[in-house]
User: Fold this.
Amino acid sequence: MLNRRILRTKVFKAVYSIAENPSVPVRESVESLRKSCESTRDLYVFLLDLTIQLRDQAYNYIEAARSKFNPTEEERNPNMKFVENLISVKMQESPDFRKILSKRHLDCWDRYDIFLRHLLDSLLQEQFFKDYMSEPSADLKADAQLFRNIYETLLEDNEELVPILEELSIWWNDDLGYALTWCCKTMDYLGKGSDWGLPPLYASQLPGNEAMSSDEDFVLGVLRTAHRNFEKYTDSIAALTPKWDRSRICTTDLALIVSGQAEADAFPQTPRKVIINEYVEIAKFYSTPDSRAFVNGLLDKLINNKD
Assistant:
């Protein structure tokens, strides 16, 4: 499930913690990194539950309208297409999904009913939802596409969702975009008639490609190398930046450069250009406007001139 870009991002964050507290034990760093990786998949599962929760919220709306003293004709005979959405049914009836929700304590949307009501209200105003509801026939692919549209348009920049994610996990806000992408992939998969299954957290080593380590070995290998050689790496950075002592180098940039050095040492088969480009890309999102050039220049000197 986790690709190399997000794994590198998580390593960088773990190295940042080391830069903030160099005395942190390697065991603690590794455990924190493992939890960070697992949390991304947890968020994905939590968000998938919206296929059920939004359906239930819509059903409650319909029942409340029917119970009015004098309901309108539309309220007496509502359009039931959304509450009968086949993706919602598939996820509701998946024993694996329900088991994982319960085991990981992710079945907690009922604590955020106001958010669910507001999300449904927003959905009702969307043209893609109106188009979906106006189509009389039921279709699994169309039902999946509806939820794909929801994940694409209503959640990533949702200001009401931010405090919910912050309350549930210290890692979830940064992982939201990636988890939503996986929700969209899952809708494509389910829309073809496949059953849901929990995706593996790490990709395994491919047969016949022994030069490529498994993703779990990769992420832990980079972190352990960074932890073991942190002082040596920071000394090498200081040697190339005589006008900038350790206390004046942005901690984010320091962590990015150390992560790149560690990857080059731990996995020398990876092209160094790839390593440099990857950490430069991460710098765009997590550091200052000048960091891209700084990280690129330092990593180029440090890992390309070490032989």
Summary: The chain has a mean pLDDT of 92. Residues 92 and 259 are 42 Å apart (CA to CA).
